[in-house]
Amino acid sequence: MEKENIQPHLLLNENVESYLRDNYLSSNRISAEGDDRFEHLLLRLGCPPLFTTLRINTLSHDTSTVIASLRKEIEKSYRLRGLDMPDISLHPVLHETIVIKNHGPVCREKVKKEVIVDLPCGMAVLRGADVFVQGILGCPSGTRAGDKVSVYADVDGKCLRGLIKAYDGQKLFVGNGIVQFAREEIYCNEQPLSGIGVLMTESLYEAPSLNGTCVDMVFPQNLPSIICSHVLNPQAGETILDMCAAPGGKTTHLAVLMKNEGRLVAVDKTVQKIEKIQAHAKEWGINMIETYPYDSTQMVDNKADSFGGPPFPIETFDRILLDGPCSALGQRPSKRNKMSLNSLKSYSAYQRKLLKAAVQLLKPGGTLVYSTCTINQEENEKQVVWALKTFSELSLEPQVPHLGQIGQVCEGLTDDQRQNLQFYDPGIISLQLSVDNDTIGFFIAKFKKNE
Ligand SMILES: C[S@@+](CC[C@H](N)C(=O)[O-])C[C@H]1O[C@@H](n2cnc3c(N)ncnc32)[C@H](O)[C@@H]1O
Predict the structure, then answer these.
(1) Contact 174, 135 (CB under 8 A)
(2) Atom of ligand 1 nearest to the CA of 354
(3) Nearest to residue 380, comparing CAs of 449, 437, 323?
(4) CATH 2.30.130.10 intervals, the chain
(5) Are 301 and 412 in contact (CB under 8 A)?
(6) pTM
(7) How far does residue 305's CA lie from ligand 1's centre (Å)?
């Protein structure tokens, strides 16, 4: 039986879905009966945003040169796929941000030969990527380089690598492409291949794939993440802490905003991820970032030297970014999330430990930005209510730029306080989807520590 999913909405565990639905509807002041706003949200989460945003390295490149180089690269790749050039423009407010308008879903005729890829790979394809060899799970026998195939994402994660026959689990069609290697080469254990395994010529969504080009010039970053670093507003010469920094997308942006001058401390618990921050900084010619593998919940020690690595004494930093671990339920596209309700509920306590350390490490008069990429109110507005109640020295600050919606309705938050919060809600019903509202789900709060 064909189990391909036609509706590309996000699938969640039943109790997680009903928990999130209740919260989402009550925070939007919607009665649960007969309302399909939450279903709309799940549908939007299952699809990619229709805009690709790329942040320019304005530290070492001139914007017009970058746009010209990018156009050339995209033209090359689009011509190879027989596509018309997309609209490429600068964001009207964020002048270091290139916006590319994508298309989709495009109606594609499926072919008989099927390649099954893992779910993360399938989701990347929906945002414009090609299929890398490591993502290939199933590929029919006799497949040769140059064969046209239909590519499907393995929704349940049950397809074994090397599968030769047709996959009978749930799968999602993500487009057609041309295989770059013979089957035997793809699964050869002696000399594992790397690079593109299927060049996507007819993706379900037409979006640019840079495949390692222009990496010193642009960084693909979701719009709310770009906004987040602007909201912190770091200044050259200041002492800034990025508490949960890897892979470093926001860290490098903070460095650019600081003009590579001052002290920027980037901490992450995972050693391997720290290397990613360093590699990205090197590519961009940034040398001001100090990176440390460390548990940021344990980062306060009054006997420590504020000029060394972590831990740090209280009141060391002018500004702190806490873009910490979260349930990531705002990520798009996302087809299946197997998170349990207990696991979903565990984030809040952990984030509070990080928030506590952040408040202690901030100088009086300093700024703290707290952000998540989730639509779960427990990790967003409710954390703000908790922080304001627990730390009397904190107050909410207006955010610039403010291109998202205001904070959702939440017990303990006044309407004025909600105005100071920024929530990117993929479930928004809008007459016109734009780069500012067709985004991943994201939440930003900006606090000041009063003197
Ligand atoms: C949402 S990601 C951060 C993304 C990053 N800010 C960026 O823009 O590229 C959250 C990060 O928090 C890190 N993390 C989780 N617990 C941590 C802790 N106790 N201390 C430091 N980092 C932690 C994870 O390793 C992960 O890299």
Answers:
(1) no
(2) 19
(3) 323
(4) 114-203
(5) no
(6) 0.95
(7) 24
The structure tokens listed for 373 are 């990429």
For the chain, residues classed under CATH 3.40.50.150 are 222-449
CATH superfamily entry for domain 114-203:
PUA domain (2.30.130.10)
270 lines ligand 1 (CB under 6 A): yes
Report the alpha-carbon distance of residue 313 to residue 231 in Å, rounded. 25
The residues near 189 (Cβ < 8 Å, ≥ 6 apart) are none
Say whether the peptide bond before residue 48 is cis (omega within 30 degrees of 0). no
Q: To which residue do tokens 């390295």 refer?
A: 57
E strands, 294-381, in order: 317-322, 336-337, 362-372
ipTM of this predicted structure: 0.99
The predicted structure's pLDDT at residue 193: 81
* In the predicted structure, residue 5 carries a pLDDT above the cut 60: no
What is the mean pLDDT of the segment spanning 279-293?
Answer: 97
What is the model's pLDDT at position 192?
75
For residue 2, pLDDT over 60 is answered with no
49 near 126, Cβ under 8 Å?
no
State how far the Cα of 108 lies from the Cα of 203, in Å rounded to an integer: 8
How confident is the prediction for the chain on average, in pLDDT?
A: 94
Q: Give percent of the chain with pLDDT exceeding 70.
A: 97
Average pLDDT over residues 213-217: 93
List pLDDT tens digits, range 153-194. 999 999 999 998 889 999 999 999 999 999 999 988 777 788
Neighbouring residues of 322: CB distance < 8 A, sequence distance ≥ 6: 243, 244, 354, 355, 358, 368, 369, 370, 371
- In whole angstroms, give the CA distance from residue 20 to residue 18: 5
For domain 222-449, give the CATH number.
Answer: 3.40.50.150
Q: Whose CA is nearest to atom 15 of ligand 1?
A: 325
Q: Is the CB of 295 under 6 A from ligand 1?
A: yes
In whole angstroms, what is the distance from residue 339 CA to residue 322 CA? 23
Q: Tell me the per-residue pLDDT of 236-260, one tens digit each, with 9 for 90 and over.
A: 999 999 999 999 999 999 999 999 9
Whether the bond into 105 is cis, omega within 30 of 0: yes
Which element (helix H / strand E) includes 269? none
Phi and psi at residue 247, to the nearest 5°? -80, 5
Going by C-alpha positions, the residue among 146, 138, 142 that lies closest to residue 198 is 146
Active site residue 214: no
| 250 Cβ closer than 6 Å to some ligand 1 atom | yes
Q: Which atom of ligand 1 is nearest to the CA of 353?
A: 19
Strands (E), 139-214: 148-154, 171-179, 196-203
